[in-house]
Amino acid sequence: MDKLIVEGGRPLRGQVRISGAKNAALPLMAAAILADGPVRLSNLPVLGDLLTMGRLLTFMGGRVELGGIAPNEAELDLTGLSRPEAPHELVKTMRASALVLGPLLARWGRAKVALPGGCAIGVRPIDLHLKALRAMGAEFDLSGGDIVARAPQDGLKGAEIRFETPTVTGTENLMMAAALAKGRTIVANAAREPEVVDTGQALLAMGAKIEGLGSDAISIEGVESLAGASYVVMPDRIEAGTFLAAVALTGGEITLVDFPHEALAPVTDKLKETGLTLTPKGPNLLAQSAGAIMAADVTTRPHPGFPTDMQAQFMAMMAAAKGTSVITETIFENRFMHVAELRRLGADIALEGRTAVVRGVASLSGAPLTASDLRASASLLLASLAARGESQIYRVYHLDRGYEGLDRKLSSLGAAIRRVKA
Ligand code: EPZ
Q1: Which residue among 5, 51, 119, 148 is the active-site one?
Q2: Is residue 119 among the annotated active site residues?
Q3: Distance, CA 374 to ligand 1 centroid (Å)?
Q4: Which CATH architecture has domain 2-19+235-421?
Q5: Which of 15, 167, 245, 405 is most buried, taking the most CB atoms under 10 A from its CB?
Q6: Considering the entire predicted model, what is its pTM?
């Protein structure tokens, strides 16, 4: 397991390209199950979760060439799928494996998917996915920790579905199942995240009939079959937001190439409140910071609210801000694992249930830190960039699951980060 050794106090200067969005690439890879021909994806990030999804689709009998054509390209041909199964050893490392459930039921009429366990940030059930698929005629049994799923003999049927709470992968799973179902499916209280829209756009390119993408009411008219297609994955708004939090903390001036302006608006609006200067430059963004951060409050919400995946990174900023920030996490019940570690750097954070009260301190000081989940590890890395002296960050495999070379990209901007094989 690698560790990162960080020497804080360096301003960031230069430019980096934002990689493709992990949370769009994952459903897009699963969508290849639906196609009668090969699906070509480009602008893919090279990171752990995508390699896991590639292994899963290969396990099912698909032909997956990740990086075969070019580093950030993939060709996926699942027409030869022989085993509609997602075994526990793959699902336990990546909950997003549940995304194969809808496509397998729609295309092959059956699936056996290990029930995802909990994870560091919460229980994260998929009950809403199952309830919605049941409304389309699917039946589920639980045996040995696996969900054994079957579609009706004559296939899934369109249905009217309302999600009790917006679910990102639940909406994606349902859109993919409905694309090949008989009749029309209406999804109310659908997730509006940009990655859901990206998934829908790719399904349209494959011949699906979908309306309402980006709204909370999506309607899908099932079709006989879907063709292979080529699709360019959208840039990763959370990686982009992570770089903005980094330069806010260290001071400096960076240009982010291929910046998702619209998708990240809920975050850039908030960051301007903290004093960051953001100047769009066509498809890119110039971010300038004098390093003096003003405190601001945040409550995470489904899109178009402030994204939960930026909460930990924003908290790292607030730890070194002028003033007090109240941060409320409404999406996951345990997404404050980074708090104890930030305190080790000298952060002054009080937790009250789902709310953290962060009193900015004049300076943080380096310490050994342990990552617990993907965005917590990003938060610790950002805070250590601003801390005086040296920090060591252990268990960086969490970081490698969700970012394409974040430490390498930050080093190219002047950060002092060394990766050591532990
Ligand atoms: C997606 O997870 C993202 N992952 C997460 O990003 C992100 O944090 C989350 O959406 C919220 O934006 C991918 O897209 C691969 P949800 P997902 O279903 O779909 C509850 C990252 O850091 N819920 O929108 O699993 C759930 O427990 C990851 O990149 C149910 O109760 O999240 C949570 O409290 C972390 N039953 C809330 O809804 C269900 O059946 C929102 O979850 C489904 C969800």
Answers
A1: 119
A2: yes
A3: 13
A4: Alpha-beta prism (3.65)
A5: 245
A6: 0.97
